[in-house]
Specification:
The structure holds two protein chains of two kinds.
Chain A lengths: L14 H16 L10 H12 L1 H4 L15 H5 L1 E2 L2 E2 L10 H6 L19 H12 L30 H12 L10 H12 L6 H8 L6 H10 L2 H14 L17 H12 L4 H10 L8 H10 L16 H21 L18 H9 L23 E4 L2 H17 L9 H19 L2 E4 L9 E2 L13 E2 L19 H8 L7 H14 L20 H13 L4 H10 L1 H4 L6 H6 L12 E2 L2 H12 L54 H5 L18 H9 L1 H17 L4 H13 L5 H20 L1 H8 L12 H15 L6 E2 L1
Antiparallel strand pairs in A: 1-2, 3-4, 5-6, 7-8
Chain B lengths: L5 H11 L5 H6 L1 H14 L6 H5 L10 E8 L12 H5 L7 H4 L21 E4 L4 E4 L3 H5 L4 E8 L5 H10 L9 H9 L9 E7 L24 E2 L18 H22 L2 H24 L6 H7 L9 H13 L4 E7 L7 H25 L6 E6 L3 E7 L6 E5 L3 E6 L7 E3 L1 E2 L6 E3 L2 E2 H11 L8 E4 L2 E4 L16
Helix pairs in contact in B: 1-3, 3-9, 10-11, 13-14
Chain lengths: 803, 484
């Protein structure tokens, strides 16, 4: 169903130009040493060694060939039978060079079986590196970031925001010029979609277009950062990382109680909770000093993070096996979410490319040995299943109200004050009653409770049956540092504090790199889940470090970083691209323009609902069930499942609240590349397939949205057909249509109006799609024809694209 | 991934297919090599550009695969692996030498007692393959199939064992074999999915099955399997909204295309070109899928052969017929699941039901492919996700058998596989794959080999590794003795 997205109405490109393209790409991402420059180990050499040599001559001692390791200076320069792989300053006596240039295929490295070959350019780089002394450097992301000096640039208007200085300096060195600022309509649409995930209304677009004050743009930015929908948008990304879902993931994939955790995340972003605190609360909120009232509740809710892993309630599960699976799942997730390194492979063997050992893997897992999860094994096949420990928790609105009540109660019950008046006593009573009523509405949510830690052993080759491995204590990966354990066993709290601290070189870099992806379309280091040796040397290493340091210096202030990014000139550029620039930088790694992309799955839904006016903007709360094809859950069992879509206002809530069934994710979400959230997803692919086309065309959610959009068009869009078309078009795309565009839609309208007038039953059938009541006062054939127009508009590439 | 990246798939597809019509490469070639170049160019520092080009190493014997998954785990001891010694040991304690230190599923804490075969076996065909009496259909194609009696896997419960069978590992989120195959070879179907999943059930209370089993993992998502539904739209959202006939829907699709083209004239966004093409294709599929599902052109003899009585009713029989229709239209990988083989109790009763539903149609599929000349280049595989214990399970009523990962059996036919051979053997009691053991990864390597692909070279870059269907830990081998 998903043929390759290709088309031929472009001029064929010659093989030569393709090769040119590839060569250029190599140059852009590595910006490697020119002849005569000093070769940098991290930029130029490590990628070559990692890709071609480390699998056999790297950190994994158990699978090392010929006792040779090339990932350290000592290893590379050690003499074997009088010879050394690398002799600093002497390429011609270095065995490494001899072997990679050997004519004898038996001698030649990398061996034929590896299917890897070094290019002459790579051989030359290695030669020059050895000649220059063969200096090794720690892997870039393992070195604590230092704040670099801002580069000097030739344009005053691009020197104010540090981001622009770094971007422009690189562009100038490549003799490229930045693009002009995007037009105001594009800009405001971009800001709304990036910061809230919702498109601006026509009125909001007009207000911005007509606002000529110098701070017009910044005021929009500030307003959007203050919008409650900002937290929803940021949460989408975080929920992908931590694999938040409504179901257990394995076997019967039963629902579990967790939706308050999503509220916590949304609230945290909306309140701009410092990222270090956000980190600690999720990993170890239960171990933090108790606080009063509602705030402490949220900390407990935050610890739901530790419970988000996949569990099984299958009859034959072996407790021991699944405890091992859960440990591995947690290590994979923590290392991906915060450290941006891939530790999964170290479950069975030492990492092949990074200095991460199997002991590191189990030591990191040992931090979670105190998480009480035996309740999982008593879990039932009920819906939701129970996975104690769980606790009742408020939603965002309830929490806000509770906090208010508690403050007022505290004021009234001031022990220093005189006895309560009769009126106040009554007030206290009624407030107390209200408080009790709210608490009764709390939803259950899984939390973390600490118990005596299990013994954790290294499992040889990941074999959970084995007792042969040594017992490990909680520890952070050795290559990244060590915790002070003088006061006893290190805890999750110690781990969490270390993760979000200056002692850890990774967390800040990883987070700002992913933020950058949200606003510029690529990461500065573009393998978002791996900043290790097999990741990518950043296109702008100084900028990445500058941002990481700025993030820490600001007190891990997320909004500060977001604002810095969206206020930059770099961000505000047009995303249109000339042929020349496309050729020079096809993937926009240098940012001489903005990137453009199709909206994420949830936002495709949100924009259609917004345009139609159907969107219910309640923030927080339980998960919701939109329309879904009948029978989709037929393969679920224990218990069998029948999906019932919401018949209330919940039907039209935002995509971020959609019920996330891990093993049968909603087909619309799947069609638009939402991850199943079985594992950490640092980035989503953007496919362009017939399945997505079918979903947007025919999913009742979008058909209903088109019909209700049509109602709006008839009521608010003016009198004439053309006025209405223009209104609908501008609502969906934030720009006025051209006359030709209006003409195409007018033809569609006229044709379908005629047809639906003759076929009232067809009109009636179309208009009955969806739960939203059909108003009596709008003529059916007309409304049906406008529904066709609305469907066409909602399906435009432009309607689901952020430019 | 931003919109401009679409340019690469285009430039590459053009580079390789200058002479191909658009129809041809929408359907096929660009799936395979185009995808390779795409990943190469998009990630130039780390991608191993050579890997996939070089994955096409052998002359392909099979062009497509029909994979019949007997979900739940049929007993090898009552199907393809005759164990007279187990009959002799019936009722006696299972020797601890077999079970000590071994993982056990539902028999944890129970006495382990040998259970002799519950059905008789006979020799069939000129080759004399031994097949249990409940499978007369499979017996009738004995000379066309290769039986492997020495299969084994890593996982003892359904969900993870299916995940191993489909993706080579029990970790969620890895690409499934169908998506690997379409990634490596593309699809020959112009307006149908390249990887289709069909499901049926019947027998004991069925185990759940997850979309993970046909996911694309870190491969481009167009390689994801598409499950055809037996009720409602066969493919999600393939029907027009109420009130629309094909012409009316066409008007809307045309307007979308015209507006997208206009817009693209000024913004020149390669993703728009792609989207226009995908809407046209989607519209085409709205016709081709109903045509596929319309079986009025099948002869009564054919319907009888499969045992299709009520049209495409979601039965295993109907799905076998549909599988052949998909194969004819160029779908590369067709996977059937029949859920009902988890026979912890009432094994005799439930085995009869499951065999009654699956045995005849499985054989009919092989015969039908053969009579149409398609068996030579269609590989058919019939297997569960694991086997069942030689020990009785008696704690749930009439006797059954528990999950077993150390040994199970499967058969394959067509696509370059020898007929009439049995390969490998279990020990006397059917507990361990003893002679010529074949791990699931060896099965994968063999399937890819038959399709002309080198399993060591069919890779995708993920988290710093060149990920393969056959994994990184243990070497996988092609089971050459069963190949023609």
């Amino acid at each position: 169903m998903k043929p390759n997205p290709t088309i031929t109405n472009m001029k064929p490109v010659s093989r030569a130009s393709l090769v040119g393209l590839a060569t250029w790409l190599l140059a852009v991402t590595s910006s490697s040493a020119q002849v005569g420059d000093r070769v940098s180990f991290n930029r130029d050499i490590r990628p070559i060694l990692s890709e071609n040599c480390f699998a056999c001559h790297g950190p994994d001692a158990n699978h090392r060939k010929a006792g040779l390791r090339l990932d350290t200076f000592d290893g590379a320069t050690k003499r074997h039978k009088g010879k050394a792989a690398v002799v600093p300053g002497k390429p011609d006596t270095s065995q490494l060079l001899a072997r990679i240039t050997a004519n004898d295929p038996e001698e030649r490295m990398p061996p034929k079986a590896s299917e890897k070959t070094l290019s002459p350019r790579q051989v030359n780089l290695l030669r020059r590196w050895i000649a220059q002394g063969a200096e090794y450097e720690r892997h870039w992301s393992f070195i604590p970031p230092q704040r670099p000096e801002l580069p000097r640039v030739g344009r005053g208007d691009w020197g104010l925001n540090p981001i622009d200085a770094f971007i422009l300096a690189r562009l100038e060195s490549e003799s490229l010029k930045p693009s002009a600022e995007a037009d105001k309509r594009t800009l405001i649409r971009r800001l709304y979609l990036d910061l809230t995930g919702l498109p601006p209304s026509v009125e909001q677009v007009h207000a911005f277009v007509n606002d000529n004050k110098p701070d017009a743009y910044e005021r929009v930015v500030d307003a959007l950062l203050a919008s409650p929908h900002y937290g929803e948008r940021m949460a989408m990304h975080w929920l992908d990382l931590v694999r938040f879902a409504d179901t257990v993931g394995y076997h019967g994939d039963q629902d579990h109680n967790i939706s308050p955790y999503r509220d916590y995340v949304i609230k945290a972003f909306n309140e701009n909770k410092p990222f270090d605190q956000f980190t600690v609360e999720q990993l170890a909120g239960d171990l933090m000093p108790k606080r009063d009232g509602v705030d402490d509740l949220w900390r407990q809710v935050a610890t739901g993070y530790n419970r988000l892993l996949q569990t099984s309630h299958e009859g034959g599960v072996q407790q021991r096996e699944y405890l091992a699976k859960y440990l591995a799942d947690r290590v994979r997730n923590v290392s991906s979410v915060w450290l941006g390194v891939t530790m999964g492979c170290a479950e069975c063997h030492n990492h092949k490319y990074d200095p991460l050992t199997q002991a590191d893997f189990y030591s990191l897992g040992a931090f979670f040995a105190d998480v009480d999860e035996l309740g999982t094994f008593r879990g039932s096949n009920s819906l939701p299943t129970r996975r104690p420990p769980e606790m009742p928790a408020p939603n965002i609105a309830q929490a806000t109200e509770l906090k208010q009540i508690d403050a007022e109660l505290a004021a009234l019950n001031d022990p220093a004050a005189a006895a309560l008046s009769e009126a106040d006593a009554a007030k206290v009573k009624s407030m107390q009653a209200r408080r009790d009523a709210i608490v009764k509405q709390f939803r259950l949510t899984m939390v973390t409770r600490s118990v005596a830690p299990r013994e954790i052993r290294v499992l040889p080759r990941g074999d959970w049956l084995s007792d042969a491995g040594s017992v490990v204590q909680p520890a952070v990966p050795e290559t990244l540092g060590a915790l002070d354990v003088s006061s006893g066993r290190a805890t999750r709290l110690d781990l969490a504090k270390w993760i979000a601290s200056r002692d850890n070189p990774l967390t800040a870099r990883v987070f700002v790199n992913r933020l950058w992806r949200l606003f510029y379309g690529n990461g500065l280091s573009n393998v978002l889940d791996d900043v290790g040796a097999q990741g990518e040397w950043p296109t702008h290493p100084e900028l990445l470090d500058w941002l990481a340091v700025e993030f820490m210096n600001s007190g891990w202030d997320v909004n500060h970083m977001v604002k810095l990014m969206v206020m930059s000139r770099t961000y505000r550029q047009s995303s249109l691209v000339s042929d020349d620039l496309l050729k020079r930088d096809p993937f926009n790694r240098l940012y001489a323009r903005q990137s453009r992309w199709r909206l994420q799955a949830e936002l495709v839904r949100d924009t259609a609902l917004t345009n139609s006016g159907l969107l219910v903007r309640t923030v927080g709360g339980h998960s919701v069930k939109p329309y879904q094809p009948a029978g989709y859950y037929q393969h679920l069992n224990f218990p069998t499942r029948t999906y019932k879509h919401d018949a209330s206002d919940s039907q039209w809530r935002r995509g971020v609240y959609m019920h996330w069934q891990r093993v049968f994710l909603h087909p619309m979400l799947l069609a638009f590349d939402a991850p199943t959230r079985e594992e950490c997803a640092a980035d989503r692919p953007t496919s362009n397939t017939p399945r997505a086309a079918l979903a947007l065309l025919n999913d009742p959610t979008f058909v209903e949205a088109a019909r209700v959009f049509a109602q709006r068009v008839m009521r608010e869009g003016g009198r004439s057909v053309d006025e209405r078309i223009a209104f609908a078009f501008e609502t969906a795309t934030s720009r006025r249509p051209t006359n030709v565009e209006i003409g195409i839609l007018r033809n569609l309208y006229t044709k379908h109006h005629t047809q639906f007038s003759k076929e009232p039953a067809a009109a009636e059938a179309l208009l009955k799609v969806g739960l939203k009541p059909l108003p009596d006062d709008l003529a059916r054939p007309e409304l049906a024809a406008w529904t066709s127009v609305a469907r066409a508009i909602l399906n435009l590439n432009e309607s689901i694209t952020r430019n | 991934m931003t919109d401009d990246m679409d340019i690469v798939s285009m430039t590459h597809a053009n580079d390789h297919n200058l002479t191909l019509s658009r129809r041809a490469f929408l359907g096929s070639t660009s799936f395979g090599l185009g995808a390779v170049a795409l990943s190469t160019l998009m990630d130039p520092v780390t991608a191993n550009g050579a890997a996939l080009h070089h994955a096409h190493r052998f002359a392909p014997r099979a062009k497509r695969v029909i994979f019949l998954t007997m979900a739940g785990g049929p007993s090898h001891l009552e199907s393809l692996d005759y164990k007279p010694k187990l009959a002799q040991m019936h009722g006696k304690p299972m020797p601890a030498s077999f079970t000590k230190g071994q993982p056990i599923a539902q028999l944890q804490g129970h006495k382990l007692v040998c259970q002799g075969p519950l059905f008789k076996f006979h020799k069939h065909g000129q080759s004399g393959q031994e097949i249990a009496e409940v499978f007369p259909g499979i017996a009738s194609i004995a000379d066309d199939i290769a039986i492997i009696r020495s299969m084994h896997t890593d996982q003892i419960n359904h969900d993870p064992a299916h995940t191993v069978m489909n993706t080579g590992t029990s970790i969620s989120g890895r690409p499934s074999m169908g998506s690997w195959v379409t990634y490596g070879l593309g699809s020959e179907a112009n307006d149908l999915p390249g990887f289709v999943v069909l499901t049926s059930k019947g027998g004991r209370n069925p185990q759940p099955i997850a979309t993970r089993q046909w996911g694309a993992g870190m491969l481009p998502s167009r390689h994801q399997g598409v499950e055809f539904q037996s009720a409602g739209d066969p493919v999600h959202y393939v029907s027009n909204p109420a009130g629309y006939d094909r012409n009316r829907q066409g008007d809307v699709v045309d307007a979308i295309g015209a507006l997208n083209r206009l817009r693209n004239a000024s913004v020149r966004n390669p993703a728009i070109d792609t989207r226009i093409a995908q809407y046209e294709l989607a519209f085409k599929m709205q016709m081709s899928i109903p045509q596929l599902m319309d079986i009025t052109d099948e002869s009564p003899d054919t319907l009888d052969l499969y045992g299709v009585k009520n049209g495409l009713d979601g039965s295993f029989a109907a799905n076998c017929l549909l599988a052949r229709r998909l194969a004819e239209r160029g779908t590369r990988f067709i996977q059937l699941y029949h859920r009902g083989w988890d026979h912890h109790n009432g094994l005799v009763h439930f085995m009869k039901i499951c065999a009654g539903l699956c045995d005849g149609p499985s054989a009919a599929l092989v015969k039908d492919l053969k009579q149409r000349g398609m068996l030579d280049d269609t590989l058919v595989v019939w297997t569960g996700e694991f086997g069942r214990t030689p020990m009785a399970q008696s704690n749930k009523g009439a006797v059954g058998r528990d999950h077993h990962m150390r040994a199970f059996s499967l058969w394959m036919a067509g696509g370059g596989v020898k007929g009439g051979v049995t390969y490998g053997a279990t020990d006397d009691l059917g507990y361990n794959a003893a002679e010529n053991p074949v791990h699931v990864r060896d099965l994968h390597a063999t399937m890819l080999h038959l399709l002309g692909l080198d399993h060591d070279r069919l890779t995708v870059r993920f988290q710093g590794l060149d990920l393969k269907l056959t994994g990184v830990l243990e070497p996988a081998r092609v089971v050459s003795p069963i190949l023609q």
